[in-house]
Write a structure and sequence with these properties.
about 130 residues, about 30% strand, 3 helices, disordered C terminus, four-stranded antiparallel sheet, alpha+beta
Length: about 130
């Protein structure tokens, strides 16, 4: 299992589009370290994120923010992912804001997660469509 992530030299700058640092992730620990910085899971021309600059990606990323329900029993958890993706390799990463910022007491703990699904083929920009 391996995924390529490109990180920024900043954290939390919404206007940033530069991701010059290529990180090859093999372990969950490496993934958690890589996602501490702003990051993308695709390679872009000139390391500049934009639709026209997309080159390729070797992973499918989905955010699980559990905003579909106020009922904790309906939330997607790490345990439930085994049932949902029984034959898929994946790693989980918890967002930096959960690690760095304390939640308000009134805010439910929804186990907000990004799931990195590994596929056998790389996604590449299609031309002529």
């Amino acid at each position: 299992m391996q995924v390529t992530i490109f990180t920024a030299n900043c954290i939390g700058q919404a206007a940033n589009c530069s991701y010059p640092n290529k990180v090859t992730v093999v372990t969950p620990e490496q993934l958690q370290e890589a996602v501490k910085a702003d990051h993308v899971c695709a390679e872009y021309k000139g390391n500049y994120r934009g639709i026209g600059n997309f080159i390729r990606s070797d992973v499918i990323v989905m955010d699980i923010d559990n905003d579909h329900s106020e009922e904790p029993a309906e939330w997607i958890t790490a345990e439930k992912l085994e049932e949902i993706f029984p034959d898929m390799e994946y790693m989980l990463a918890f967002p930096v804001d959960i690690i760095c910022f304390q939640r308000r007491a009134s805010q439910p703990d929804r186990d907000i997660t990004s799931i990195f699904l590994f596929q056998r083929l790389q996604m590449q920009k299609c031309t002529g469509i």
